[in-house]
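At your convenience, could you comment on the folded chain following this short note?
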Amino acid sequence: MYNSKITGLGYYVPDNVVSNDDLSKIMDTNDEWIQERTGIKERRHVVPEQDTTTSMGVKAAKVAIERAGIDKDDIDFIVFATLSPDYYFPGPGVLVQRDLGIKTVGALDVRNQCSGFVYALSVADQYIKSGMYKNILVIGSELHSRGLDMTTRGRAVSVIFGDGAGAAVLSREEDTTKGVLSTHLHSEGQHAEELSLIAPGMGKRWVTDILEENDPQDESYYPHMNGQFVFKNAVVRFSEVILEGLKANNLQPTDIDLLVPHQANLRISQFIQKQFGLADDQVFNNIMKYGNTTAASIPIALTEAWEAGKIKSGDLVVLAAFGSGFTWGSAIIKW
């Protein structure tokens, strides 16, 4: 029996900082309105032609691989989580394999949006625990900015999201008291359309339909979010899946050294923090700087927390996410 252990972490965000005041110049919004509802002060947007979902993932991966103390050819498998791939197909996993010059290992793409990194981590964890692979590269990367409605019409969604990437190397750990102790995954598809991007899609409206109709009022190819409904479900599911993970390992909320939640909304994180009775230094948030980077948010935050010395050997680290699908999940990690 093996566990998987995070041996390397890295992240990358574009240099281009977009503040709330910057957004107020192109849509009817302001810094106070955004911060009050989301906690976000600024986010990063790519400069077109300089960064892609794949290139950001590659930059984060290089750092993670170096910190893991392995060569790129020691990577046995790649799992790439994103909702914003460079192409409709193929997914970015194979592009990372190509761009990093890794030998012809398998590459898997995960489409679980805000829960994407937790799902990807769980997949990698199971492959390592089965003995199939020894070192797996797990990436979460998102390029939101080019697909947002950057007008007053789209402000409720567009002010929230940012671009960036995070990566982790999971490696085989023979001490089963360390590493990823367990992961817990859930979905509830009946609410799929409450947080979604409907078109283009094969089921209803493809690119040809959009072009033929040429309707300037069409919002189907911009993200839609029922904000209050998502918030209400998120706080419930976050709590449930964290407790599920703790119970599975005979742990209590008081055992948590650091909670790294998906950076969806600072108000959600604060609600969960209060519910579990955690101090400020027991919850890591960076949504203020980067906005919601979907599948990239947890690995970016986890990397920053580790770099800041907030995670040490023996700590109990809990990852939790909720998002489109609805999907949600948690990972319980003994560092």
About this structure: The chain is about 35% helix and 25% strand. The first strand starts at residue 3 and ends at 12. The radius of gyration is 19 Å. The chain has a mean pLDDT of 96.
